[in-house]
């Protein structure tokens, strides 16, 4: 009993070998406010979770929710999360004893010539046996506990990967929707420009017939009209391509384009200041940072698993069985047998393979630390870049709006002066060309501004917090 008490005390005092994981500290400069001058065009409030609702576009809201529920990339990430959770459950079961129940029946015959006993005769008999084998891994050096710790890290990384997939899908859905709306708006501007140029073309032809114009004037006006008209098919093709992409993002075949999205003619815009928070909130929110941190924790735990392989492994083994030639004798005490004892295994002194695996685990952990640091830097860089581009596009858009208003006014005045005979046709054509260019550039900037807003939301890393669980869509009934 004294020896058993000492053994139990030794097992209870055992500790896991290998390094204990500590989350890397965030540099103070990374946790503060963002530095780009573009922060003057956003607010310092907490970043929104369902950020797409800031666009106040019901069609976009529905498309994002649909994509979060049915997108195939999210379904893949969700399946992977279920897989690693099952692996964690399997690893936890290593703390429990292993058992193996068996039952056996044999019909045996021993021939007379199989023995060296003179006068022996052949014997034939039945043999019945039932048994239970059990084993238990004594986790003295923490190999099992470190394996569980690593599996928990894998689960956290898989959960973060699922959240990252949700962010990517929500951002891509919003971006493609904005593209579809933007191409529709640019196609509308091109059509209206072509119509205006057609009116000017008709006027120049009438002037030519009246002897007041030249063929060169007609050709120049025709070039403007056809250039505007030639852009319409390109914009329409890109709009349809975006609608096909939206269909697949929401888990549908390209033929099932969204009717409401097809009617959108103006890119969605966030009218107020976008809340961005600070660096500390960003790093806590971004799933890719959490994924890298959980992978680092898992790989650190695997160093402990590899370290434990340098030490002896102890298993407690036991078995009980009942065996008899007659099934009715199995319950008798003479049929009972058992065995009990520890099994100690150790690869000493040949530890070269175990040491090599330890070096591999340590190198993997060092790589994971570098990946974590790189992911933190990437997250901060992406937000600063998104702020810079968003700020620049805001200023560009404001200037283009002023330019478009001035071009419209100049074209109107040029038309009036030409009708009054105070300007030449060439001056009117120049004014029309400037107006067409200003309108087309503004339409392109409106689309770019919407995409810059989506890019900023994507960099901020929100959108997974209230995401619905992915579901399997039933096929449509015929």
TrEMBL record:
> In the UniProt record, does the keyword Kinase occur?
no
Q: How does it sit in the membrane?
A: Lipid-anchor
Q: Name one GO molecular function term.
A: efflux transmembrane transporter activity
Is the keyword Lipoprotein assigned to this protein?
yes
For this protein, the record's Gene3D superfamilies field holds: Outer membrane efflux proteins (OEP)
Gene Ontology cellular component? Answer: plasma membrane
**Coiled-coil residue spans:** none
Q: Where found?
A: Cell membrane
**Keyword tags:** Lipoprotein, Membrane, Palmitate, Transmembrane, Transmembrane beta strand
Family per similarity comment: Belongs to the outer membrane factor (OMF) (TC 1.B.17) family.
The record's annotation in PANTHER family points to: OUTER MEMBRANE CATION EFFLUX PROTEIN, OUTER MEMBRANE COMPONENT OF MULTIDRUG EFFLUX PUMP-RELATED
Q: What is this protein called?
A: RND transporter
């Amino acid at each position: 009993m004294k020896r058993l008490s000492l053994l139990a005390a030794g097992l209870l005092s055992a500790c896991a070998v290998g390094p204990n994981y500590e989350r890397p500290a965030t540099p103070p400069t990374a946790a503060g406010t963002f530095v780009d001058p573009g922060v003057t065009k956003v607010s310092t409030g907490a970043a929104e979770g369902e950020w797409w609702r800031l666009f106040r576009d019901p069609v976009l809201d529905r498309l994002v929710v649909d994509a979060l529920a049915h997108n195939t990339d999210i379904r893949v990430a969700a399946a992977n999360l279920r897989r690693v959770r099952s692996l964690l459950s399997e690893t936890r079961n290593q703390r429990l004893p292993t058992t193996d129940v068996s039952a056996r029946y044999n019909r045996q015959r021993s021939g007379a010539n199989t023995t060296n006993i003179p006068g022996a005769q052949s014997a034939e008999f039945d043999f019945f046996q039932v048994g239970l084998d059990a084993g238990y891994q004594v986790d003295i050096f923490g190999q099992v506990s470190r394996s569980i710790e690593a599996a928990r890290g894998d689960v956290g990384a898989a959960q973060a990967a699922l959240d990252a997939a949700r962010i990517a899908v929500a951002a891509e859905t919003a971006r493609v929707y904005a593209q579809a709306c933007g191409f529709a708006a640019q196609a509308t501007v091109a059509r209206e420009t072509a119509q205006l140029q057609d009116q000017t073309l008709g006027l120049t032809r009438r002037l030519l017939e009246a002897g007041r114009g030249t063929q060169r004037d007609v050709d120049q006006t025709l070039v403007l009209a056809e250039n505007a008209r030639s852009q319409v098919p390109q914009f329409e093709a890109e709009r349809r391509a975006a609608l096909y992409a939206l269909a697949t993002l929401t888990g549908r075949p390209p033929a099932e384009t969204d009717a409401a999205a097809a009617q959108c003619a103006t890119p969605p815009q966030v009218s107020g200041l976008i809340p961005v928070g600070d660096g500390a909130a960003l790093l806590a929110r971004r799933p890719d940072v959490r994924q890298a941190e959980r992978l680092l924790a898992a790989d650190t735990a695997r160093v402990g698993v590899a370290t434990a392989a340098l030490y002896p492994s102890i298993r407690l083994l036991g078995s009980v069985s009942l065996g008899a030639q007659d099934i009715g004798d199995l319950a008798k005490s003479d049929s009972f047998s058992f065995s009990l004892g520890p099994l100690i295994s150790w690869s000493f002194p040949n530890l070269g393979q175990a040491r090599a695996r330890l070096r591999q685990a340590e190198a993997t952990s060092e790589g994971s630390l570098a990946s974590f640091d790189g992911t933190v830097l990437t997250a901060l860089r992406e937000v600063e870049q998104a702020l810079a581009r968003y700020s620049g596009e805001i200023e560009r858009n404001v200037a283009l709006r002023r330019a478009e208003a001035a071009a419209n006014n100049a074209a109107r005045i040029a038309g009036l002066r030409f009708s009054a005979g105070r300007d030449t046709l060439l001056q009117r054509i120049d004014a029309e060309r400037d107006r067409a260019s200003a309108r087309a550039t503004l339409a392109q900037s409106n689309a770019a501004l919407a995409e810059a807003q989506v890019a900023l939301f994507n960099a901020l890393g929100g959108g997974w917090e209230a995401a619905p669980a992915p579901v399997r869509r039933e096929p449509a009934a015929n």
